[in-house]
Amino acid sequence: MSVQINPSILSADFARLADEAEAVRGADWLHVDVMDNHFVPNLTLGVPVVESLARATDTPLDCHLMIEDPDRWAPQYVEAGASSVTFHVEAAAAPVRLAREIRAKGARASMALKPATPIEPFEDLLPELDMLLIMTVEPGFGGQAFLDIMLPKIRRTRELIKKHGLQLWLQVDGGVSAATIEQCADAGADVFVAGSAVYGAEDPAEAVRALRAQAESATAKASWACDH
């Protein structure tokens, strides 16, 4: 599994989203933060913007739904053009059913855990997923400081993935930057969401390349990435 860098448009200029997508053309995915002002105390965008953005870029969309009732709404984001849809386990009524519905509609199914939510109770759900997202800040706002107390949780999640022999991507989101990405890669993450570290840079595309190089270097040295 190679390193993937997903710039978060939460840190982009919302008035110029098509241009901002083009500015990070070398990225693997565009991370789209959907917030409803209920599950998290912030309001961002919804299905119509995702539809427009999907038409405006060739980069696949990775939609992170920080919303209540994802069982109802998540399938609509697949229909809007998202190639990966992440729902929060804290908000989902039937996570297995929802993951299967997302997959059936043709997208990758992903589940997110807030910082205080442990991974262990959801071990049996992992085979139903294509990606697991470990939040490394409290969801709701960009630009927050990385919570290094999440590193052991990332390690434990990687161990569970290896235990079950899964081809499951492990994403981290929140405070990922040049100062923290190597720690995340060493702990077991392989998909990295970066907002202000990319869009706050003078050259966003170069920031993506630099973050990728750091993560690849750390992964090459990481014990979890070695064959046993």
UniProtKB/TrEMBL annotation:
<keyword id="KW-0119">Carbohydrate metabolism</keyword>
<keyword id="KW-0413">Isomerase</keyword>
<keyword id="KW-0479">Metal-binding</keyword>
<dbReference type="GO" id="GO:0004750">
    <property type="term" value="F:D-ribulose-phosphate 3-epimerase activity"/>
</dbReference>
<feature type="binding site">
    <location>
        <position position="33"/>
    </location>
    <ligand>
        <name>a divalent metal cation</name>
    </ligand>
</feature>
<dbReference type="InterPro" id="IPR013785">
    <property type="entry name" value="Aldolase_TIM"/>
</dbReference>
<feature type="binding site">
    <location>
        <position position="31"/>
    </location>
    <ligand>
        <name>a divalent metal cation</name>
    </ligand>
</feature>
<feature type="binding site">
    <location>
        <position position="64"/>
    </location>
    <ligand>
        <name>substrate</name>
    </ligand>
</feature>
<feature type="binding site">
    <location>
        <position position="173"/>
    </location>
    <ligand>
        <name>a divalent metal cation</name>
    </ligand>
</feature>
<feature type="binding site">
    <location>
        <begin position="140"/>
        <end position="143"/>
    </location>
    <ligand>
        <name>substrate</name>
    </ligand>
</feature>
<comment type="pathway">
    <text>Carbohydrate degradation.</text>
</comment>
<comment type="similarity">
    <text>Belongs to the ribulose-phosphate 3-epimerase family.</text>
</comment>
<comment type="function">
    <text>Catalyzes the reversible epimerization of D-ribulose 5-phosphate to D-xylulose 5-phosphate.</text>
</comment>
<feature type="binding site">
    <location>
        <position position="64"/>
    </location>
    <ligand>
        <name>a divalent metal cation</name>
    </ligand>
</feature>
<feature type="active site" description="Proton acceptor">
    <location>
        <position position="33"/>
    </location>
</feature>
<dbReference type="InterPro" id="IPR000056">
    <property type="entry name" value="Ribul_P_3_epim-like"/>
</dbReference>
<feature type="active site" description="Proton donor">
    <location>
        <position position="173"/>
    </location>
</feature>
<protein>
    <recommendedName>
        <fullName>Ribulose-phosphate 3-epimerase</fullName>
        <ecNumber>5.1.3.1</ecNumber>
    </recommendedName>
</protein>
<dbReference type="InterPro" id="IPR011060">
    <property type="entry name" value="RibuloseP-bd_barrel"/>
</dbReference>
<feature type="binding site">
    <location>
        <position position="8"/>
    </location>
    <ligand>
        <name>substrate</name>
    </ligand>
</feature>
<dbReference type="InterPro" id="IPR026019">
    <property type="entry name" value="Ribul_P_3_epim"/>
</dbReference>
<dbReference type="Pfam" id="PF00834">
    <property type="entry name" value="Ribul_P_3_epim"/>
</dbReference>
<feature type="binding site">
    <location>
        <begin position="195"/>
        <end position="196"/>
    </location>
    <ligand>
        <name>substrate</name>
    </ligand>
</feature>
<feature type="binding site">
    <location>
        <begin position="173"/>
        <end position="175"/>
    </location>
    <ligand>
        <name>substrate</name>
    </ligand>
</feature>
